[in-house]
Amino acid sequence: MTALTVIVAQNPENSWAHDIYPIELAVIDKQIDTICQGIGVDAMKTGMLGSAALVEMIAAKIKKYQLKNVVIDPVMVCKGIDAIMVPEAAAGNERTAGAAGGCDDAKYVGSGIPCRHEMRRDA
């Protein structure tokens, strides 16, 4: 089951620039509640977390539903982009990752080389 957090459109006429369209937090909140309450979750992996508020909401959901087997992959940087796509979200990831956010069971990873580079640079 999937809960969408953002929709990304790439523009091939502008060096494949990424346009990011966040989904409203209330919609994401309902998607996650539906999945957790109606279906159940054996494992969870995040994708792009497009705002600090979303990062904090995800941390709260992990605690509320006592989710296990959690991988936080924030998708901060994409191939072809030189900077963090949503700097505010990166700051939120830092605040909520690991013990600081109470998500002790979560593993915090970056899926791509650009993302891992950005995470190391901020450490």
How is this structure best summarized?
This protein is of the alpha/beta class and 123 residues long. It has helices at 25-39, 52-64, 87-96, 98-101, 113-122, and strands spanning 6-11, 17-22, 44-45, 70-72, 106-108.
Q: What average pLDDT do the residues reach?
A: 74
Strand arrangement in the largest pleated sheet: 3-4-5
- Beta-strand content: 15-25%
Number of strands: 5
Largest sheet, strands/sense/barrel:
3 strands, parallel
The oligomeric state is single chain
Distance between the termini: 32 Å
Count, helices: 5
Rg from alpha-carbon coordinates: 14 Å
Protein structure class: alpha/beta
The arrangement of helices and strands along the chain is EEHEHEHHEH
| Low confidence ranges | 98-102, 112-123
* Share in helix: 40-55%
Short key terms for the protein model shown above:
123 residues, two-stranded antiparallel sheet, 5 helices, 5 strands, disordered C terminus
Can you give a write-up of this model?
The protein has 123 residues and is an alpha/beta fold. It has five helices and five strands. The strands form two sheets. It has a three-stranded parallel beta sheet with strand order 3-4-5, with no helix packed on it. A two-stranded antiparallel sheet has the order 1-2. Strand 3, helix 2 and strand 4 form a beta-alpha-beta unit. Helix 1 packs parallel to helix 2 and helix 2 runs parallel beside helix 3. The longest helix has 15 residues. It is elongated and about 45 Å long. It starts with 5 loop residues before the first strand and ends with a helix. The C terminus is likely disordered.
